[in-house]
Design a protein that fits this description.
alpha/beta, Maf protein, 6-stranded mixed β-sheet, 15 helices, 6 strands, 54% helix, elongated, binds inosinic acid
Length: 437
């Protein structure tokens, strides 16, 4: 397998090739890519992106490294190569470093290396390696490059420039970052993609799925309960609309993970468990599912209109992450149920009931979504969000009880709602490790 490496530095290329042995390492000069980021990871990303554009569908790698000295507040840092000005002058850099540390007792320092990877799906990964040590009072040794004669790694008295290449490579920041990078490549290149059922269950957040059709049942019940007289129909349309809403929801989840493929690290696409191509296919199939269900019934034109607004809300939410839009998606599910339930026109009372339910749903889910900000780093918040999303089924059931008390013929919807509640309980109990968010 080929890995394109963004460098024109033969020394680095040898070190990278040694650690990534077994892969075909191909150098590609990221000429023109200006290293303007404030940290090593940012600069590594700038370089890797410059070459990834030329090698779509292939692995690309870039690194950025430098020296950070504690007493100098992390300097020279990202300016390591140009510490004493441009063009790079190693002797001047080392002299300036010694001058700035003159008379200082605290000489702790570390080299840091960030390695940025772009995988064949175009997803970015960043790993880091560090080597801790101190800055000597005078240079020693002739091997290596850059600040090597001044840097004495912890656990010894010799500077990097006094170590053999093999000794340095065993502990260097670059070696450590590259070993991590190798781990990422091996994990993602392993042929287990798409075969992992648990990854697909997490991809589609199956545990929360039973909360979706209940929106449609509640909306349908609101429309039927608000009618002047029991029309006798509507239950079949509601069932189809509920199935379609499940497909909309699955479409939205797939689209969300595709859009956030580079950022949401714990999810199956960024982690490489599901390839971006498979995720895109799944998203297309979900769209197909909506069309198939909508046409099979067939559902009325006004359901299609509500469904299209729902589609837009899903797509815009995934790209803006505005909590109100997430709430609106669930509110629109309610409206879709109402649109599928009634054949004739809507009276004011029907609109009032439907919009009241849709409004409550919108506000509730928007609030839960807002609260879920930062749940990844807060297990309590994550668990609470899972509980609050699950509680939606109780809200749905409550609405169905009220509407059934008003119109007893709606009892079948109430039974369906109770089935969904049981399904949710089973899903939560049988998949404790599946993310509830
Ligand atoms: P680069 O941008 O990763 O090529 O590294 C920037 C600068 O950091 C180099 O020009 C060196 O001054 C310094 N540097 C990075 N790694 C090392 C190392 O292993 N030994 C000495 N200096 C290094």
């Amino acid at each position: 397998m080929k890995i394109f490496v963004a460098t024109h530095n033969a020394h680095k290329l040898r070190e990278i090739a040694a650690i990534l042995s077994g892969y075909e390492i191909v150098a590609d000069d990221p000429a023109g890519a200006e290293e303007t980021a404030a940290d090593f990871a940012g600069n590594a990303l700038i370089k890797v992106r410059a070459i990834a554009a030329r090698h779509e569908g292939e692995w690309c790698l870039a690194d950025d490294s430098g020296l950070e000295v504690q007493a100098l507040g992390g300097a020279p840092g990202v300016r390591s190569a140009r510490y004493a000005g441009e063009p790079t002058d190693t002797a001047a850099n080392n002299a300036l470093l010694l001058k700035n540390l003159q008379g200082m007792d605290d000489r702790r320092a570390n080299f840091t290396c960030a390695v940025a990877l772009v995988d064949p799906n175009g997803i970015e990964h960043v790993v880091q390696g560090r080597c801790f040590g101190r800055i000597a009072c005078s240079p020693s040794g002739a091997a290596g490059f850059g600040y090597d004669p001044l840097f004495v790694p912890d656990g010894g008295e010799k500077s990097f420039a006094e170590l053999s290449a093999a000794e340095k490579n065993a502990i260097s920041h670059r070696a450590r970052a590259l070993v991590e990078a190798r781990g990422v490549i091996e994990r993602l290149a392993a042929p287990r993609r798409g075969k992992n059922v648990s990854a697909w269950l997490r991809f589609f957040r199956v545990v929360n799925l039973p909360t979706v059709p209940g929106d449609v049942l509640a909306g349908g019940a609101a429309a039927l309960a608000g009618a002047a007289a029991w029309s006798g129909g509507g239950l079949g349309g509601i069932a189809w609309a509920a199935a379609a809403s499940v497909f909309w929801y699955l479409f939205g989840l797939a689209d969300n993970d595709i859009v956030g493929a580079s950022t949401d690290r714990g999810r199956p696409v960024p982690s490489g468990e599901i390839s971006l191509r498979a995720a895109r296919l799944a998203r297309g199939l979900c769209w197909g599912g909506v069309l198939a269900v909508g046409a099979a019934c067939p559902l009325p034109p006004r359901w299609w209109m509500a469904g299209m607004v729902l589609f837009i809300a899903i797509v815009v939410y995934n790209r803006t992450k505005h909590p109100l839009l997430m709430g609106l998606c669930r509110g629109l599910n309610v409206v879709c149920g109402a649109m599928a339930a009634v054949e004739g026109g809507f009276c004011v009372r029907q609109w009032t009931y439907v919009l009241a339910v849709a409004g409550v749903w919108t506000v509730y889910i928007a609030a839960v979504t807002k609260y879920s900000d930062g749940e990844e780093s807060d297990p309590f918040r994550k668990a609470t969000v899972g509980m609050l999303v699950g509680a939606l089924v109780y809200l749905q059931l409550g609405a169905l009880v009220v509407f059934t008390l008003m119109v007893p013929q709606l009892r079948w919807l109430l039974v369906a709602g109770a089935v969904l509640l049981v399904a949710l309980r089973i899903a939560k109990l049988s998949m404790p490790k599946v993310s509830a968010s």
